[in-house]
């Protein structure tokens, strides 16, 4: 995966992935849709995220364990699979830890392309963990962001992000508070890892005309925004049955109004309507986005040596004689 990304170029990957995700959002109705299947524990969560467009089936296995960082492990690890619907045979098995970071950033950029203020040039990145650089580069490549303002409660995380973005072409400003980070920013991205109700942004911090990209809240009991912000914002979501369980809107009443992002992309609903509107993309990650990323990778692998053929499917001479195949393997 790393060789493939460097072969294409990371910003080009982010632009092309943004377009791939948007292409699938435009055909939203073709997909099987179900909230992710989650197994929660005190330590974290393990999830399966399946979908199909009727021709290709895909799923992602992913975990979320914030405590892992203390042990030098990734908070999130993932792998994904594509299979043909016509035979049920898998055609791609790939890592998705890196790919999830790329597709999450691409999805954020896709949403911002439709919801952020026109000609926005500055963004705040609150939470400077593993996702931060991808988010900044996607906003730069897709929207033309020129400045990123960083804040994390862990100053080492901010220093890491600033160091990694030093030669990106972005103006990078490290801040000592979330309030300082959002000053002058047209896009505010929150991406923190604590598995709890939190208040990263309060209502008095958020002025009119901004786009909030809330991507840290992704499971029951975990949010980042004060609910009063949601009362002032127009909120856009991927799949309401999942977001009402996992997103910022889990704080709100069941009739809290939301707009599905695919409808904005298709021109069936309004996105940003004026310069004072606060737009909120309450992003929890949905299986269609992973499908788009897997489909993109499969296409990009053609004609390269960035993959290996693996033999994991039983292939008896007689499809009815699986036992005979096993017996012959003794020879």
Keywords:
331 residues, alpha/beta, eight-stranded parallel sheet, five-stranded antiparallel sheet, 11 helices, 22% strand, globular
Account of the 3D structure:
The two termini are 38 Å apart. Helix 2 crosses helix 3 (97-115) and helix 3 crosses helix 10 (287-301). This protein has an eight-stranded parallel sheet with strand order 8-7-6-9-11-15-13-14. A five-stranded antiparallel sheet has the order 1-2-3-4-5. Strand 13 (234-237), helix 8 (240-246) and strand 14 form a beta-alpha-beta unit. The mean pLDDT is 95. It is globular, with a radius of gyration of 21 Å. It has helices spanning 2-8, 10-25, 97-115, 132-143, 155-164, 178-182, 227-232, 240-246, 261-265, 287-301, 322-328, and strands at 37-40, 45-52, 56-64, 78-84, 90-95, 122-126, 147-151, 171-174, 187-190, 197-201, 211-214, 223-225, 234-237, 259-260, 279-282. With 331 residues, it is of the alpha/beta class. Helix content is 33%, strand content 22%. The protein contains eleven helices and 15 strands.
Short description:
With 331 residues, the protein is α/β, with parallel strands linked by helices. It has helices spanning 2-8, 10-25, 97-115, 132-143, 155-164, 178-182, 227-232, 240-246, 261-265, 287-301, 322-328, and strands at 37-40, 45-52, 56-64, 78-84, 90-95, 122-126, 147-151, 171-174, 187-190, 197-201, 211-214, 223-225, 234-237, 259-260, 279-282. It is built from eleven helices and 15 strands.
